[in-house]
Amino acid sequence: MGVDIKQLAAGLGVSASTVSRALNGYTDIKAETRERIVKRANELNYRPNLGAQRLAKGRADAVGLVYPLDSDYVGNPKFLEMISAFSARLESQGIDVLLAASHATNEMATYDRLVRGGRVDAILLANTKVHDPRIDFLLQADIPFLGYGRSGKRMDFPWFDFDNEAGSRMTVEHLALLGHKKIAYIHTALEFNYAHERHAGFVSTMKRLGLHIGVDMIIQGSQDRRSGYAAVEKLLLLPQRPSAILVDNNIGGVGVIHALLDAGVVLGRDISVVVDGGNPTDTLLHQIDVAAVMQPTPKESGTTMAEMLLKLMDGSMSVEGEHVLMQPKFVDGKSVGAASC
Predict the structure, then answer these.
(1) Backbone phi, psi, residue 185, to 5°
(2) CA 207, CA 162: separation in Å to the nearest integer?
(3) What is the largest distance, in Å, between two alpha-carbon atoms of the chain?
(4) How do residues 181-229 score in pLDDT, each as one tens digit?
């Protein structure tokens, strides 16, 4: 067992504060004294108490991310890849990422414990909603935070997001050019901002192009495979099947593709499919060439958000730099073809 700072100081005949200042490079300690302290600390394999150091500095050296147990984020490889890049960039600055699991009913209490307890220096706010009380709480708490997504039209907090409406617009326009008129839409709960925007982009583009929106062809699911599968089962029972389907999330998209294949549907010939986010690489379907709306890579997104948070934490980010909106692109695939009817 190693020595503590008091034992190290006593053995050297100096104060604990002198040891601390010498090991932290303060210039008010004589060079020979510093050398003697550093030499003895190495000999005794002394390691500073990081908790005490953080308390003294008034910092936790951690960024918090509240993970909603009610969602399927942890099962999404893209989310995990983003978090990996996000944490790697912060780790290079000696900052940890603290993941706090919470159910939706206890989520605000979890944020309160993290912030009021001084457990984190900043927050990454994921899964933002159209109306999000967490934003007002964090603004009032006066802690640096970054929204991983927008909240309605609010511009009073920093965020990193994707142009979700543009992704739906590009998809509908591409399908319309191929003669598709009966386009179904499978989406997650519209309380989430990204889902609301993607839905709005789909509806507005369908109306602009004069395409009929059948209420039975817009189905709410969630970010899971089962709801995507169940949504397709409903669509296949309609008197007139859709000629194309747009899914607003990649996990639900896996269920959609499975259901179509199980029903003997030939993708791109019988029914075309576009998945926002693409086909996850951790499924047996990853070799299927699925048309997709693609955002910048999760690694790029995670690194960018880490950089933004670091600037927010040290106060160097300007107001103009507090909002980043990334543009998507439509990637064609064999799951899309000309309308057969």
Answers:
(1) -135, 125
(2) 23
(3) 90
(4) 999 999 999 999 999 999 999 999 999 999 999 999 999 988 889 999 9
Collapsed DSSP state (helix, strand, coil) of residue 295: coil
User: What string of DSSP letters covers 123-178?
Assistant: EEE-S-BSS-HHHHHHHHHT--EEEES--TT--SS-EEEE-HHHHHHHHHHHHHHT
Q: What is the 3-state secondary structure (H, E, C) of 220-245?
A: ECCCCHHHHHHHHHHHHCCCCCCCEE
Query: pTM of this prediction?
Result: 0.81
Per-residue model confidence as pLDDT tens digits over 76-116: 778 888 999 999 999 998 899 998 888 878 889 999 999 88
Judge residue 210's burial from the number of C-beta atoms within 10 Å of its C-beta, 0-12 exposed, 13-18 middle, 19 or more buried. exposed
What's the CA angle centered on 141, arms 119 and 134, to 5 degrees? 90
DSSP secondary structure string for all residues of 88-110: HHHHTTT-EEEEEEE-GGGHHHH
Please state, as a whole number, how many other Cβ atoms lie within 10 Å of the Cβ of residue 285.
Answer: 15
CA dihedral 252, 153, 135, 64 (to 10 degrees): 50
The upper half-sphere exposure of residue 97, i.e. CA atoms within 13 Å in the direction of its Cβ, equals 24
259 neighbors 228 (Cβ within 8 angstroms): yes
The Cα–Cα gap between 267 and 247 comes to: 14
Structure tokens of 143?
């802690």
> The tokens of 232 are what?
């397709």
Phi–psi pair at 300, nearest 5 degrees? -65, -40
Q: How far, in Å, are 77, 98, 212 from residue 293 at the CA level?
A: 16, 31, 22
Query: How remote is the C-alpha of 148 from its chain's centroid?
Result: 6
Domains of the chain in start order, with CATH, are 5-48 (1.10.260.40), 62-162+298-326 (3.40.50.2300), 164-295 (3.40.50.2300)
Task: Count the Cβ atoms, other than its own, within 10 Å of residue 329.
Answer: 12
